[in-house]
């Protein structure tokens, strides 16, 4: 099973995160399938590769809670097909 989750980067006390599609059994810093976004909580910046995110969501990937909140703020779930609105 694939999940969309955060992968920590940056230095001590200055964390930034990549949003990645990764196998559930992998650890947080493990090898990801694809990088699909970026999140900086200190500057409150996000960059999302929306076509890649929609591709993984349509294939059945589950976002973690934090990633789901980020995607809701960016209104990514509105772009899913109507039969795939289980994340609203």
Please explain how this structure is put together.
The model has no long low-confidence stretch (mean pLDDT 88). This protein has a five-stranded mixed beta sheet. It has a single domain (1-78), classed as Ribosomal protein S16 (S16 Ribosomal Protein, Chain: A), CATH 3.30.1320. It has helices at 50-58, 65-73, and strands at 2-11, 14-23, 34-40, 45-48, 62-63. The chain is globular. A hairpin with a 4-residue loop joins strand 3 (34-40) and strand 4. The protein is an alpha+beta fold and 88 residues long. It contains two helices and five strands; from the N terminus they run E-E-E-E-H-E-H. It is found in: Plastid, Chloroplast. Keywords: Chloroplast, Plastid, Ribonucleoprotein, Ribosomal protein. This is Small ribosomal subunit protein bS16c. InterPro entries: Ribosomal_bS16, Ribosomal_bS16_CS, Ribosomal_bS16_dom_sf. One of its GO terms (biological process) is mitochondrial translation.
Strand order of the largest sheet: 4-3-2-1-5
Quick check: average pLDDT?
88
* CATH 2nd-level architecture: 2-Layer Sandwich
Instruction: For the record, give the distance between the C-alpha atoms at the N and C termini, rounded to a whole number.
Output: 21 Å
The CATH homologous superfamily is named Ribosomal protein S16
Keywords: Chloroplast, Plastid, Ribonucleoprotein, Ribosomal protein
GO molecular function, one term: structural constituent of ribosome
Subcellular location: Plastid, Chloroplast
Pfam family, one: Ribosomal_S16
